[in-house]
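Render this sequence as a predicted structure.
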Amino acid sequence: MADVQETLIVVPCYNEAERLDGKAFLAAVRADPSLGFLFVDDGSRDDTRAVLQRLRDEQPEQLSVLALERNGGKAEAVRLGMQSAFDRSAKLVGYFDADLATPLAELAPMRAAFDERPDLLVVLGARVGMLGRDVVRSYHRHYLGRVFASMASLLLDLTVYDTQCGAKLFRNAPPIRGIFAEPFCVSWTFDVELLARLAQLARDGVIPPMARSALEYPLRSWRDVKGSKLGPGAALKAGAELALLWQRYGRFER
């Protein structure tokens, strides 16, 4: 990537050759020279890497590929991608799911929030079903999500509506770089661990209180996309990981 982008978005990819909407990413960067994408191929077994390389060649100034030889899981792909993105000096760095369940149009209001609030360090996309919002989720995923969010809020001692939405944006600041420095101890629920690390920094006085440092943005549009990699055992695994996170982060000093 020849030029520094003001906003650089990491897109973790594993076996996404058939689902990746290259036209959407190309349209986004061609409409906004300050935006870039870093695609992380997480050791895909299909033609994902070739698809990403062809996409990069269409717009090499704003699109790049980080190729991981082994599949390490989404958490590690995001973490390594974020580290690489931080090093490229973008002011804002984030990650979006490759399936674009969260449309790229949501980036504009998420980015604008940082201009409005100088203390803000992270904007979290939140899938909130409200009048005037086009958020479509299956009933079982919605209600499982509410149970999970309640448990995560208890663990974090924060009122968080949606920890798991795959659309998050961060200010490129030393404390934020620090929360991606070490591997996560969980996989499915790494977003919760990320917030736990951030909350600990707030409790230690390294960053302002979470009410000022973090903002949940209710997405205007979000849809379940066919081909999700969440299997029937995901809920059980997520519960086990929350228990592990509770042991590690759940007893903050008051």
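Summary. The first strand starts at residue 7 and ends at 13. The radius of gyration is 17 Å.
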